[in-house]
Amino acid sequence: MESPEKKPTRVLVVDDEPALLRALEALLRRKEYDVIAVDSPIVATQKLAQEDFDVALLDVKMPDLSGLELLTAVKHRRPEVEVIMMTGHATVETALAAVKAGAYDYLTKPFEDVELVARAVAKAAERKQLFDRNKQLETQLKEKEGTSGDGLVGTSGPMREVVRMIDAVAYSAATVLVNGESGTGKELVARSLHAKSPRRGHPFVALNCGALTETLLESELFGHVKGAFTGAQRDQRGLFDTADGGTIFLDEIGDIPPATQVRLLRVLQEGEIKRVGSAESIHVDVRVIAATHRDLPKLVKAGKFREDLFYRLNVIAIPLPPLRDRIEDVPLLAHHFLRRYAERLGKKVRTVAPEAVELLCSYRWPGNVRELENAIERALVLCRGESITPADLPPAVSGRTAPLIRELPASGEDQAWLTQSYAAAKEHALRRFEKSYVEALMRACDNNISAAARKAGMDRSNFKRVLRKYRGDLETEGGDEGAEGPQSASA
């Protein structure tokens, strides 16, 4: 990931002791800081009015203007400057007053080791860099949201290409097929296409085709008449009918059964639907946007997906890159989710520490943007300071290891593991962990499968497959019809 050219940290040193002033200036210049040293607080205020600084090192006792008064002036004029106070007359009251006025650190003279000063300046400079990066990300987000408002976040080459494609085809009525791994934000692309199209004043409806049985899927899509099937107690409009004049987004289109494929093909060819149980055709004007993480040409070759339907859907293809192929977007996305969830959770966390950002950018993100969103939400819950640190990140991201199982006791059920092969014991342990994990997650999500899948950073259909392993042990039907909720702003 390329980074902009780094400018040297600018440090303002203010002290009325000439010998100490020269020593501090020489020390910091050796550390490759850009140093301005002055012996007058009045001159310091003039410098602050004319030039930019990252760190200010101020003596407390000075003529004309005390260090605390100068600190107040600095914070009033340049609140982003990190200030370190120095004094030979340290008191608790002075230290508290300095911190209250906004000082980053407080050093007592004479210094036991001048390297303490250098380390304090280095930490303050790092904090200032974090502030600058945070401000830069805020600006990028405001510019992005101000121009698009579609929730798509990213300035990398692959994402710029996605946005270019969206802008190019938004005004067309052509069918679009969005290809991408689970968690990359395919629904956001669909919503962006709708928002930039002439249909934006009409409904946008979305459906996960892999989450329903064939009967329920057809009923959801096309509607049904009273008595069409058991439980059909009244006529019901389908989503194509509801979306008339607007856009319908069909996620996981590769999972629809053959009979539904035939009916969908008729809609695309003729612009007509028939409600389940009815012979009457209803004309609809709907733009179809489909999405899948599966290889549709491969399904066509295997005879599992109709070739004619594939070509009808694949009029315009928009490939959505996985997060590992646009790692340069990770800091911006992390800040985006930080801002969103900090507000929701009422947390005063403002930034992600540089070492945490480095870990985020080093991780491969198999769960893509959805996994990153979950990681930031988790980190915010655990964070106790102003910045997310590596300790707040999930073990998979931070590289920390967490034991999946407790230590084997000397007796009881687990003692039987010692008589098994390593592979058998490992399988047993993993199954125990998997069962315990999904049980706890389902309880935490009030038995709502959709919410649990999001928390796990998994696609809903994949999460359901894990649940089915334990269907004899777990009650998984509750919440199966839980609302998916709005797609997170994550691409």
Automatic annotation (TrEMBL):
Domain Sigma-54 factor interaction: 152-381
This protein's record includes keyword Transcription: yes
InterPro entries (alphabetical): AAA+_ATPase, AAA_lid_NorR, CheY-like_superfamily, Homeodomain-like_sf, HTH_Fis, P-loop_NTPase, Sig_transdc_resp-reg_receiver, Sigma_54_int
CDD domains xrefs: AAA
Domain named Response regulatory: residues: 10-124
Modified residue annotations for 4-aspartylphosphate: D59
Pfam families xrefs: AAA_lid_14, HTH_8, Response_reg, Sigma54_activat
Keywords: ATP-binding, DNA-binding, Nucleotide-binding, Phosphoprotein, Transcription, Transcription regulation
Keyword Transcription: yes
Domain of life: Bacteria
Residue runs in coiled coils: none
Cited SUPFAM superfamilies: CheY-like, Homeodomain-like, P-loop containing nucleoside triphosphate hydrolases
Signal peptide residues on this chain, from the entry's feature table: none
GO molecular function annotations of the record: DNA binding
Classification via PANTHER family: TRANSCRIPTIONAL REGULATORY PROTEIN (PTHR32071)
Record protein name field: DNA-binding response regulator
